[in-house]
Amino acid sequence: MRILKKIFLFLLLAIILFVVYLLINTFNFESKQLSVAPVPRIEMNPEAINNFKEALKIKTVSPENTADFDSLEFRKFNTFLKDTYPLADSLLEHKTFNSFSHLYKWEGADTSLKPIILMGHLDVVPVIEKNLSEWKVDPFAGILKNDTIWGRGAIDDKVGVIGILEAVELLVSQNYKPKRTMYFAFGHDEEIGGRLGAVTIAKYLKDQGITAEYILDEGGVVSDGLVPGMTKEVALIGVAEKGYLSLNLGVRIEGGHSSMPDKETSIDVMATAITRLKNNPLPSKITAPLKEFMAYIGPEMPFTNKVVFANKGVLSALLLSVYESSASGNAMIRTTTSPTIFNSGVKDNIIPLTASATVNFRILPETSTDDVIAHAKMVINDERISIEKGGFVSEPSKHSSPDSKQFKAINTTILQLFPEVVVSPYLVVGGTDARHYNEISDYIYRFSPIHLNKSNKKSFHGLNERLAVSDFYDSIGFYVQLIKNSN
Ligand SMILES: [Zn+2]
Known about the structure:
- By secondary structure, this protein is of the alpha/beta class.
- It folds into 3 domains: 48-239 and 396-485, Zn peptidases (Aminopeptidase), CATH 3.40.630; 243-283 and 336-393, Alpha-Beta Plaits; 285-333, no CATH class.
- Helices cover 35% and strands 19% of the residues.
- It is built from 14 helices and 17 strands.
- It has helices spanning 2-27, 48-57, 71-84, 86-91, 158-173, 198-207, 266-279, 288-297, 303-310, 316-324, 327-333, 369-380, 405-417, 469-485; strands at 93-97, 101-106, 116-121, 143-145, 148-150, 182-187, 214-217, 222-224, 234-241, 243-252, 336-344, 354-363, 386-389, 422-428, 444-446, 451-453, 466-468.
- The strands form 4 sheets. A 6-stranded mixed β-sheet has the order 1-2-6-3-7-15, with helices on both faces. The chain has a 4-stranded mixed β-sheet with strand order 14-9-8-16. It has a 4-stranded antiparallel β-sheet with strand order 11-12-10-13, with helices on one face.
- Strand 4 and strand 5 form a beta hairpin.
- It is globular, with a radius of gyration of 26 Å.
- 41% of the residues are buried.
- The mean pLDDT is 94.
- The structure holds zinc ion.
- Zinc ion binds at residues 121, 156-157, 190, 218.
């Protein structure tokens, strides 16, 4: 009995020590939020909202099939920019790339300072014809109702392009002269990889020998209720983005008649391959951007969550299992596996000769497309299946530190305009044009000062894309302030 009692006492002591350890870490878990005085709101150009509406009316759609590219609409957008922002057009250096992508250069008084590049993209994803009846408004009419502006591109990403240009036009009209050179870069094919726009502009900047102080593109937002456990709004600044790879799988097996099927047909083999991929996901991991996210939002969380985040080292297994349980959480901790196309068969009584499928992977930082291909081959483990890379491939971006003065400049600007929010670094799970600028700067961040909540988060790339008018004005105010802060 005495030995049992000793074991019990020992265990109790171990538990108490562990709890004390967790609590000490929690109490030492210091807030990383800056203390910044808010700035007064600026007066807006009353025409700004109409300009935004006009921009949404132009169907700058990046189609799935390049043959459907409507150059007339993109030409309209060129004219719109020239007519709507005459000061930016005439007083700044304005270049176009592949006819429809734009780069403005606003030369600063002190050319020894590295320039800043603000980015956006003017193309939008298509509106699926058969879903049109589910739109509450015409997606290309630029409709304003109930303090909300509706239309394809309202969030992604005409608010960025128009927000930046309104800010620039306003500052130029006030005779503002920057000390530091500023570039404004707007691609016209971001939604299909950015080859003609961002890739070309980045190459031009590189050829000019330009390295940027920092680059800011879309990608992060102000989360309103989308970060679990946070009641406050969180401004998420993307410090890295995931890579992109699609694998095209194919198999060909002699078919035959469906009355006498062989043990395995091409459909069976392909279905097994897909099941294996889904059942064997790539490993989960807490990468640098997620560590930083936890370090920034953890101290602002309610006590229980704070304990977990403060002890992410010893509680990493618990954290990973929590993240794994939701689709958005899972996307933060691993390379995701999504079968997106599956094709086989033409008739109900014929066993098809071939089956093909496409699986899309979004690749976690600190891994590569080669790792994913090796994993897929190992898991599928079937010589009969051919595996080929899809057309657009992108490695995970490099990671930009949140401990830089460049991050601090963006962080400060956010708090000057939105004093109530918590600011945090974050991993962007989608793709942006910024990935093509890896060689132009070590400080690439992704943030738009617009609110995403449960109601509008699926609207961009989906149905009824819309943005609060206040978010549009906040965007202009944000870029004005950011430009002023950078000088
Ligand atoms: Zn976008």
